[in-house]
Known about the structure:
- This is D-lactate dehydratase.
- Its EC number is 4.2.1.130.
- By secondary structure, this protein is α/β, with parallel strands linked by helices.
- The chain has one domain (5-248): 3-Layer(aba) Sandwich (Rossmann fold), CATH 3.40.50.
- It is 34% helix and 18% strand.
- It contains nine helices and eleven strands.
- It has helices at residues 36-48, 79-95, 109-112, 126-129, 134-145, 183-193, 200-206, 215-218, 237-249; strands at 5-9, 15-21, 26-31, 52-57, 102-103, 117-120, 150-153, 177-178, 210-211, 222-225, 228-231.
- The strands form three sheets. A seven-stranded mixed β-sheet has the order 5-4-1-6-7-11-10, with helices on both faces. The protein has a two-stranded antiparallel ribbon with strand order 2-3. It has a two-stranded parallel ribbon with strand order 8-9.
- A hairpin with a 4-residue loop joins strand 2 and strand 3.
- Helix 1 packs across helix 2 (79-95) and helix 1 packs parallel to helix 9 (237-249).
- The radius of gyration is 17 Å and the shape is globular.
- The two termini are 12 Å apart.
- The model has no long low-confidence stretch (mean pLDDT 95).
Amino acid sequence: MAAKKILIILSDANSFPLHNTGTEGKTIQQPSGFFLMELAKPLQKILDSGYEVTFASPKGNEPKPDPNSESLLAFAGNFYERQRENDLIERMKKENGFTSPRKFGDLSDEELKGFSGVFIPGGHAPLADLGDNAELGRILDHFHSQHKPTAAICHGPYAFLSTKYGPKGQFAYKGYKLTSWSDAEEKFMETIFRGEVEKVESVLRENGAEMIEGPGEKIGNITIDREVVSGGNPMAADALGSKFLEMLKA
């Protein structure tokens, strides 16, 4: 029986490429990071259920929050909920090595056997350094081949593309029903960013995933297919965390 350990995949990036900006159509770096509530809500449920967490990223740099995710607007004005989630991250910095995640390359195949599941939160940062990371592809190939519970939310499913660069050289989630941050939501964000962003929904579909989007995704519905539970935006964070734990205990 696997130990009660969960691997949490994070990006090292504090920005992502924003294309076709300004009159000259330049590509610039738009500030980003992990989306606070998409990490904190499932993380709290994982910890409350007695699981030990290990944070990992490509190079082991300290993860940074997406500035938009720390605004009161993101929390619908709930100052106390924002404070609770920030306090949780501060606790992780003190107790769980959040400031210096494990490097993907330092996680051996043997060590991966000790994890019960893997969780990938969102924010735009995964667009910068997770989709083509060969070591992450190796890691996710392990969870996929062993049918271990796998949770990803918002832009987190973009990390699944890394399996194309892993040892098997193919997209492991072809034919899976997945939900991510939708093209429609991204197009709305483009009007705010004033540039173009790579579309997670489209690129996953182009690689063979069956994308489940529409009105349900907008209000936080989640999608479950085999070992994977996925959601499209912060409204899905609670349901995704609960279903992930249910799958871990099954």
